[in-house]
Amino acid sequence: MSDKLNWRDEFSKEVINQSRDYMDSIVDIFISNGFINANIKKSVYFHVNIHVKDNKLEEMSCTCRKNDHCKHQAAVLRYVEENNIFEKEKDFLNLTETVDVNLLKEYLKF
To answer: What pLDDT is attached to residue 7?
Structure first.
């Protein structure tokens, strides 16, 4: 993703401020091809799904009571942004395209 995702416009300032308190509670995060799946554990677990396409938020869900545009989703997006996750994924995918497939297979053998 070459342009930055402008996710903050989708959330209230209050929710964005609350999201910082949940970043350290992200226990799992998986990102692939614009799909973000994360688990947050505070007093209970919350599961967040976010789909990003063309640097826009396509769909979001969370298992919390608010379910949409919540502090958990904002925390995950803040985490992705502050850790440059999309850029790292892109760099990794570009790197894998330059690797010799046979050499990689040999390396991954036990």
So the answer is: 92
